[in-house]
Amino acid sequence: MTDSVESRLAARDIVLPEAAAPAANYLPYVISGSLLFISGQLPMENGALYATGLLGRDVDVAKGQRAAELCAINILAQAKAALGGDLERIVRVVKLGGFVASEPTFTEQHLVINGASNLIAEILGDAGKHARAAVGTASLPLNAAVEVDAVIEIR
């Protein structure tokens, strides 16, 4: 594995976007002690939602996985902003919470959220191995198909 988070991002041709500003009365991240809590991130790409609607009706699993991956990229962007640009301060991703807007009969939320889990593990190595939840929901803000939040241990 390459030796830095930034070099692993570059190897995947990932350029982190500017961290998104909150859309309501909340903070995009909060640091409490050695924990960084990152608010739910939507699958934004180039300023627009990548996937909208419900998994199992409007969005297939592959597109949902890419949406979850974009959520993870946006989590890393928020972490970079919170840590003054230094992603090497990440000790471990403790937990990802994945929310998948789904039809009632859709049961592959875990496969969708693998998009976020796989990217985080690839970019952060052992520090990216995390606990997680993959939850189906009736809808998400802005009709997003996926939303992911994170708890990260930092130094």
TrEMBL record:
SUPFAM superfamilies: YjgF-like. InterPro entries: Endoribo_LPSP/chorism_mut-like, RutC-like_sf. Residues 6-148 form the Endoribonuclease L-PSP/chorismate mutase-like domain. CDD domains: YjgF_YER057c_UK114_like_1. Transmembrane segments: none annotated. It comes from the Bacteria. Pfam families: YjgF_endoribonc. This is RidA family protein. It comes from Hoeflea ulvae.
